[in-house]
Each structure stands twice: as C-alpha cells, then as structure tokens.
Queue: 2 jobs
Job 1
Amino acid sequence: MSEQTQPAPVAKKYVPRPEGINLEFHLPAVATGMLHIQRCSACGTWRHPPRWYCPSCHSPDYSFEPVSGRGTLYSLAINHFTVDRAWIEEVPFVTAVVELEEGPRVVGSLRGVPVDQVDIGLAVVVTPEARGDEFAFLWVDPVR
Ligand SMILES: [Zn+2]
C-alpha cells in the first residue's frame, strides 16, 4: 500500500457575526463599501462604537452616515502572535486605532507600512471590505 500525501488543510479566517446595534454598524459598510459612523439625529454628535443613546444629549435617535475614513493613527499594537491560525502568514501585523476626522476612533488592520516604520500620527484612510453579508473588515492604509 502506497502512502499518499494529503494537501494541507486550508485555514479559513474567522468571520465574526455582529448582532443588534453592532450589526447596524456593519450593514451599510457591506452594502456600499464605505465606512459609516453612527451620528445623533438630534445634536449631530458622531459616536463609535455604536450606542443606543447619545452621550451628549441622551437622544435615542440616530443614523449611520458615510464618512471619508480619513484620519490619523492614534495608537497601535504590533502583533507577533495570532490565535487564529488562518492569520499566521500575516504575522507580524499591526492593529491600528484611527482617530477619524469626525472625531470617533475605530480599530482596523494597518497594511502597506513595514511594522518597523509605523508611527503614531501617520495620515491614514480606513476602508471596509465585506466579509460575507453581515461583517466588514476594516483596513487601514497610509495616505500617500
Ligand atoms: Zn445627541
């Protein structure tokens, strides 16, 4: 009996399933490919992560409005380990906190910058990428 070699199993990257108000955040990004941020319908305050009530005026009325995604790198973590083996070829990668021009901060994955050259204050743009019908991964790219 000959021994056959099996192809290595292909790892699939885990895709979260957001619910409730977090799902409301992802749906317009999936549908349009543009980042949308929650905004109070009463006073106009931008907020993220999404909340049921406005922290400024306590209104329960809100919408998710498109934003440019432009901002600056506020904080970062260089990841040398991943619990999801599907990401092993991406290590090391940078998890970025971006302060948007509108004010709120969002978390995404930085690409296009070597990890030893990334620095706070970098001008970036956040772009969602649909992963299925209910979740958008957020990429962070440097503005050149
Ligand atoms: Zn408000």
Note: The mean pLDDT is 94.
Job 2
Amino acid sequence: MMDEHRVSRRALLQSAAALAAAPLAVRAAAAGAAPAEPFTLPKLPWAEDALAPLMSAETIQYHYGKHHAGYVANLNKMVPGTEFAGLSLEDVVRKAKLDSPLFNNAAQVWNHTFFWQCLSPKGGGQPEGRLAQAINKHFGSFAKFQAQFTDTALKLFGSGWAWLIQDQEGRLVIEGMPNAHTPLKDGRTALLTCDVWEHAYYIDYRNARAKFIEAFWKLVNWETPASRLA
Ligand SMILES: [Fe+2]
C-alpha cells in the first residue's frame, strides 16, 4: 500500500497524461500510525499562469490556492480520530453521508483535483479515437454533446458541477450536480467535469458563466476522459 501511495503521488506530479491515468486520491497512510494531516493538496499539472488569459493566474491562485486548499485543510481537521482515518480520499467520499460536512469537503478535494486534470494549456479542439466514437454513439455528434454539456453547465442553478459520466453499463451521460455531488459517490466513472461554482469564474468573467464555459471548451484536456473511458 505504501508503494501504491508513492506511485500515486509521483504520478500526480508528472505529465497531464499520467495525471489522468493515476488514482486521484492522495492516500492516507496505509499501515501504522496515520499522520496528523493525511491528505495533501496535489500539485497542479501546469503553472498557475499557464491557462491565462482564458483562466487567469489570479483565478487559479484563489480557486486552487484558497478554495481547493481550504477543502484539504478542512478534511484534515475532520478525519483524524474518526472511523474515516486511514481511508483513501475516494473511500471517504463513498462512505461519508451525502451532503454532510465531511462529504462536502472530501468530494470537493476530489472534484477539484479532477477538474485541474480536465484542463490544459494545450487543450481545446475535439476528442479523437475511441472517445470521439463513444461521444458520437451516445450523443449523435460532437456538436450535440457539446451543446448538451454547455446547456447543463449553464442552467445548473447555484453552485455545482457539470459532468460527463460513464455509467456501469458503459453508457455516456451528462449530468449537472449540485454543490459537491460527484459520480464517484454512486460508483460511476467521471470522464470530464466543469466547475460552475461562482468562485471558478467570478474574477475573470464576473457573473458571465457562459463566457467561462466558452473558455472551458478552449482549455479542455481530452486526454483525461480518453484515458478513463472503459
Ligand atoms: Fe471550484
């Protein structure tokens, strides 16, 4: 387990492709005494100004450096000494009560780590290969998929996430989920996500969520869903 921990950490620090393939959890200590702060903030897969001007360094400094880091800090206050101590991040998300403070913080750590992997300074364009075929099969065309995902992200009321999900039967579905909800909770595979909490776009786009979603499509890293597609 400790080797797995090291491999996971190393992978998180390597290329975007390796990031996409790696387990998302920064695992809690497996054997022996759990460290006081078992969860750490994974490094970003790119420099904090790499997505500018579509997503500014200031946005990343707040979104990653304040919000994402804050969820990690909260989680580290909640988990030690409880039945969740020693669990992987994924297992905390799966086992915590939906919408509880523990679930909210654990899921937000996972969701944000995944969101960064869905963005790349070399992103944009359209998927290729098996992912393109799967999207065409389940949505009719890339344009229809993109329109449905955009509509879902745009119309999600309040804070939440737009997801492209592969369910247990292999189907691809698009869902908007409120707050910290995540397909990880019910055992489905997250392929792609867009964070539509206001903190994701208010610095760069103020209240114009639609402009942020346009930027998302110019930054989307297709390697992540391609590597996770079953
Ligand atoms: Fe966020």
Note: The CA atoms of residues 37 and 187 lie 26 Å apart.
